[in-house]
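Box 3.1 — From sequence to structure: RUN domain-containing protein
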Amino acid sequence: MSVTHPLLKILKANILELYTEERVIHDYNLNLAPFCRRLEDIFTLGLKNGNNWFGKPSYWAWINKLPQQRNPSFDHTVHFVKDCLKTSTVDGKGRLFLRAALVKKNLDIVIALVKENPVLLETWYERDSIIGNEILSEIFISLLEQVKTITFSLNLKNASYLDVTWDIPVYKDYEFVPCEALGIHFIEVEGHMIVLSVDKGSVAAEDGKVQPGDVLDEMFGESLKDVKRGRVQELFQHYKGIPVYVSIIKAREYSGNIYRPLRTALHELSIDPLKHQDEENSEETNGIDCVKPPHTILEEEETEMTPVHGPDGSASYKVTYIGEYSLGSDGRVERIEDGVLKVLQSNNRKNLSVMIYLSETGIKVRSLSGDEEILNHSYTEVSACGRRTDYLQHFSYIAGETSCNLSKDFVCHVFHASSQELTKVILCAIANIQCCCRLQLFAILRLENVPGGQHT
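Predicted structure (token representation):
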């Protein structure tokens, strides 16, 4: 009879889910947190107190006791976690270690080292655990060997909330010009520097980089976790006259929702990042403009215009149609975020190889296998197009059952392209053609409202 364990089966499924995405896994990958939680479950299963009878059982405690100078990569990982000032609990240290070991591709070494030390293994694990069982631990190692074929590009600086959660916030590094003041007002809450307000017209307010509810995590490379408020001003004065380097934990997640560990504190401070974003959007011009929508330009530093067609002048592109999500009567561009997410999380993905055709009048999508027409929308039915910042090879457009101003049933259609560059080209093509169509319609309406005016 084969020996197995439910957690190992789930872990294997988690690994397969990672393989369905791009081979480089970033912090914003939706499958990362479930995978890491499963690793933690396995490391915690059957864990004893070891020699620490009064402390909480912790896998970091025994990892920290493994013999050093056996593997340089493992030693470096352990020292990195020990020296990190952003994690203070055994849970946080353990989670940071798992993330660092995934990046360094040495997680299998940890299990091999503890198996070589029977006394340590028996001290910390029950025999019916996965790590304490000879056969199950070998299966676990074989799965970790598969994990090593995946590249994890994780921001290990982003560790200030690992003490309380596996959910990783959006993390931004900014370089501001030398200045007398950044224009940021903040308060210390449970060891975190939360931004209360940002002065309009200040350096920090440029392009909305820093917003109320964000957390100051680092300044000039120094952690601000659990430091006194005065330390921020000391650093600013010490490095006065040079560019200001600041690392920010954003109040909003990749999905657009408020980051969960911040919700209680922001509520008590009467800070609503969602309302603040809506107020910023309302200040933008409502005029018709042929500049590409913000959702089609995702890199903050990007300034070059992207061509609307491929290098061969073609307006047809081979992509994968992932699926659709009904948005009801709301066809705003903001719905791109949750529309894409809902489709990617769905168990009913279509995953069809298709050609998307962009004509002067609309968008057509045909199946590559049977040349069947799957979608056909005129630009007057398309309300928005764009992509999420965490899935750059996925793009989508929102279309109604009739012209946008009359439609009551909008649907978000999601696609996957072979590269980020191709996604950008397609989105810019849709945005520019759609924009020109709207300008022509606007010109017709203006002409028809002029006495004696006519259109040919």
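Summary of the box: Residues 296-444 form a domain with the PH-domain like fold (CATH 2.30.29.30).
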